[in-house]
Design goal:
heterodimer, A: 265 residues, mainly alpha, MetI-like fold, 12 helices, B: 287 residues, 74% helix, 1% strand
Amino acid sequence: MNRLVSRLLWTVFGAAMLLFLLAPTLFTLLYSFSEARYFSFPVQSYSLRWYVTFFNATKFQKAAMETGLLALIVVPCCLAAALCTAHAVARWEFPGRRLVDSLILSPLIVPGVVTGVAFLSLFRILNQDIGLVRMSIAMMVVCLPYAVRALSANYGGVDRATEEAARDLGAGPLLAYLKVTLPQLKPGLLAGGVFVLVEVIDNFAVNVFLVDLDSNTLPIVAYQHIRDFDDPVVAVMSTLLSALALTLVVVFNRVVGLEKLSQTR
Amino acid sequence: MKGGALLLVPMAVLMALFFGAFAVFGFVSFLQPASGTPGYQGPPGLANYVRFVTDPAALAILGETIVFAVVVTLASILLGYPLAYIMARSPYRVVRSLLLGALVLTFLSGSINRAYGWLILLGRRGVVNDALLALGLVDRPVALVYNWTGVFIALLHFTLPYFALTVFGSIRSVPMQVEEAARDLGAGAFTTFFRITVPITVPAIISGGALVFSLAISAFAFPLLLGGGRVRLISNYIYDQLFVAFNLPFAAASSVIFLVVAIATLCLFFWLERFATRRRIPRGGAA
């Protein structure tokens, strides 16, 4: 009897948590497909009209371009910088290695708004007023810890014997690295890449200080839209971004396995 | 290895920009805005800091932010720990992957998106109010957004995955045999959970708690969207100094004070974690 009650309690708790976690995404999805301007549940009639509105809105088109461009700059650059750093920290004994280790993590503990104000002060002094440049630099700094952590966790598991075997068989250091070491770092690169991509697309607190008049990113445009209008256009954007997140989850699960994710962050 | 120094260059450049930004910003916090221009003027002084610590409104916002972050942290621990426990220990694979998938998906689907989702759910015409009315629990719509309740729910939803994913790994690394041994020696499921599993994972609970606390104390988008101007945390206060009052020096000084408070509380968490780890693992033990 006691066992039954406890199992029932766990089941109810698990179901409630599942509902709590997924409810905002699910209802946003429903809202994005509803015909009506105001949300009502159950949805009266479905339509794609808000998708049409979303794709035709210049401000969302521009923001999507800007966000995509930012991601194209930041993700590869950040991963490359992180790869160099993780390699040096894992393979090279140098004085102050521990200091570097903790230095890299420092952007993680600084609140987003503080980082935003700090970069704004810096760029005002440097007279740098192009939003994309300002955001690219800030995002690389903010995302570096995620990428380095994901790669450092991966470096521990790299088999150095294979690398040495490749060297013994006549491969140069670069070839050995590219053919033997780098493929083993795929999980770390993928995990790091996912975190950086998500952070770049989603960041609001830092970027809101750094955008210029025509370089708004998606979260910023979404915020302005929610503030000024009451319609499901942002629900469309949310749904599309959730679909992107779902794709990332599926790909990640296929390639590396979801359970690895909790070890890198 | 000779190329080592070269490998550190990208990191060094980025860190130099980061700390450079903080140096500039620290300096600006001692200046005053030059009236009528976006620039600043000297002479450097402590006026901005004095203004913050003598302004009861600013101090109240800082205090509320800390209390609120503590409440969110406690709630994340209370809900997140059992959640992580189910994910680690449920005998059903479906349950485990379903919860883990939902958690990771939530974790990856942006903060503005989720704040917006809660705005739809919790509004006056929202589903939650409809459900409460239909169940007869209330007789008119309750205000769930544009107040602390809304910000709390949305922020908890944001922090929960971070906490649950942190302790999940730790619970999984507790060997099942340890729990089985306790059961064999006559402990009930309840006793085993609270006297074996929870104590072993205390360091993970503390580090997950520190993570949640640092996210909650720096919350910005959630109070902005769901607080409706009535709920303002310290991040919103700083934003307003910049975009409403156009006072970058004062915003910088407020940020410095906020940063010091945030780092001090995080140090407290790290100290707690070290203390907890040292007590559990006598000496030289593997973590």
